[in-house]
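Example record

The entry below shows one chain as it appears in the dataset: sequence first, then structure tokens.
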Amino acid sequence: MSRIAKMPVTIPAGVDVSIEAAQISVKGAGGLLTMAQNALVKVTNNEGKLSFEPANDSRDANAMSGTIRQLVNNMVQGVSAGFEKKLTLIGVGFKAQANGAVLNLSVGYSHPVNKTMPAGITVATPIPTEVVIKGANRQVVGQIAAEIRAIRPPEPYKGKGIRYTGEKVTIKETKKK
């Protein structure tokens, strides 16, 4: 059995988990998240703890039990505490401004770039050079952060661009004569 799948997922107070034949639903203060049930994994709820077991002895079932366990754990964490990603804008004149569900970026192009956030995702700019993305779905938060970073990724000579907070960008040496 997968080492990850052996660890049960503890359900905190205020979070409801319903396991049906077709899907697993997690509801909490952060919203409602659903995921399709996999036939290779048996999910059981034992007094506030979710356990995951492979349905058979195949290698795929063993691997999928750990994957499903981690996905459900992310759903439980998302509806209870939420996830966030921070991006930093580095460059002269680079700035961001959040207007509701729209992020307006000025990152060196001749025009401002507008990025609309999907439902369930909030964006904030505490300072003009920092973007904070929050949401309950870890996968969507990470995907939106990657799409915003792809608008102007950090370049290797001066390091200008949009990067994750704490990301190390290797600066190349300039050409010598």
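Notes for this example: The longest strand covers residues 83-90. Helices lie at 3-6, 59-80, 138-151.
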